[in-house]
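Worked problem 6 (solution included).
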Amino acid sequence: MGGAKTGVARAGRARRRAVPWAVFGLWVAALVLIGPFAGKFADVQQNRSVDYLPDSADSTRVARIQDELPGGQATDLVLVYHRDGGLTAADRAKAADQIAEIGRTYRLTGRPAAVPSRDGSTLMYPVSSTQPGQDDKKRDAFVDGVRDIADGGTGLRVEVGGPGALGADMGKVFGSIDGTLLYTTLGVVTVLLVLIYRSPFLWLVPLAVAGVAAGLAMAAGYGLHEAFGVTVTGQSGGVMTVLVLGAGTDYALLLISRYREELRRHERPYDAMRAALRGCGPAVLASSGTVAAGLLCLLAADLNSSRGMGPVGMVGVLAALVAMTTLLPALLVLLGRRVFWPLVPAFGSEPRARRSLFAAMGGSAARRPVAVLAGGAVLLGALALGALGLPGTLRQEDSFTEKPESISATQTLARAYPGRGSQPLTVIAPTDRTDAVLARARATDGVAQATAGRSGSGWTEISVYATAAPETAAETRTIEALRDSLDDTYGAYVGGPSAQQLDLADSQARDQDVVVPLVLAAVFVILVGLLRSLVAPLMLLAAVVAVWGAALGIGGLVFGPVLGFEGTDPGLGLLSFVFLVALGVDYGIFLMHRMREESLAGAEPQAAALTALRTTGGVIASAGTVLAATFAVLATLPLVGLVQLGFVIAVGVLLDTFLVRTYLVTTASVLLKRRVWWPGRLSRAPEPARPERQPEPV
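Solution. The predicted structure is:
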């Protein structure tokens, strides 16, 4: 018998030594395999405006047909020559020479003709070439080459604008996002982990694992694109990076916090880690499940960029989950207790007694629950009213925080040509109806000029210049009038940059109506399965929706008056909702799952709520701070849409962490008592213990 016990003990020790090393070895092998694919992730990103649009949009059809015309996709530029006070004869001659040199250097579509402004201060040369084709690198090289040739002089300003230049400038911004975002986010997370753990070593472990998870996510994102044609954009790639590092660090904080507790109860780190995974594993799985499910609801979106962000973001969250529940535990077990130095949790020790901020906050909420809940609800409602102050739809020329040359050219043209649009609307018409479409377009209110261009495959390209400036209400009316008169009658389609922005806003509005209910339903189902209740999930969802409204309201108070933004990105409402609901529910899961554990152990409802807040408050605060900081990194990028998204999510996460979870959810749980678990068995009062049966007297 003794020998059998010794054999079992020896086998147990061997398993405790072998399992962590085996997990570590598998990860090393996986990294060797996925490394080359992770490096290709940036190469498959698509950042043309048309790549964001749904296939059914008129402007998308126009772009697809243009690709099939002779020469393929055209790169349209506008060269702007401007001198305050009026151009000189030498300026005009210089401009003509430079245009001729561009024509000799590149294969242009037609001969560029000068369009002078009425005040004589500006010359506009529309330039188009099919030489770059659909290759973004060739397009960028073409734009840079034209800019090198188009050189100004003393007092003469030369700017290269138009859709092609805007696309090149946008591509440069997105090309710099991945590296900048990754290293900045890693730096922010490093600082916060050092402050949280107060250890010279411990912070390195979750940070290294988060880096591994980011590599895995990039390889998976590349695989999604290659295998299923998922659209990957610079925006979705940047958000994926933030999700991996932010959500992954959250999972690490929860696991390490529970592991530290278990090390005081178990002598061997392997046993402590098993207990920690059993304790917090369901919460981490449910947390990642809600985020993944919420993101997958974006597959119902009509917009390509939003639909692609769903699976791209999902693989980021799942990569973080897999890494933090396998590689991180293996490394912590191999490193042993010493990784916590100098605050090493010794076996059998008790944590140092100190006044808990969250215990004090919970106590104050429990003393006046009605007042706290009502005050919090009023505050969130008041903040949400700020959403009424959100600026209107963001125009392309206002989409950069630091304006590139293409935007500066657009603004110069708007001032110099007040009665003419500076970029064409593109109409694609059946070739046999070209003359009729030209006549109808020229007769449309708001049209200054319409000329036919390339023909092929049964289609003809027509350039239409509006009298109004790009992306104004007057130009929008012109686009709608052209579509009303041309689409049904002549089978023509109206596209171009301004039409693309209009289709983008329309698709975003449609997607919000479809995706929001799906996200709420998916998250609700997961919460019901985890918490075995209907009331608790409804309470958590109501809380995160209130946080979303308040965060948007704060954005409305800040974006225009403080930051000077001229518009709101059309996708802000939908994307911020998906992320705040999916991520915000995470902290509710951490809190309510611990509350359920305490209730199952026999604690009374109020005691269970306050114990859950006291034990998870610190880790939730740390996780919320890290997640908010990672999304706040988006606010350092030069694109207004990403700045707005990062701001709203960061503010929402902080509101959720320090107000809603701490006060409102805890207070509501105290007020509801056992009803919070209705209709589960925890909602019913425990049966009184039966008295022991007394023996009958003899």
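Discussion: The two ends are 46 Å apart (CA to CA).
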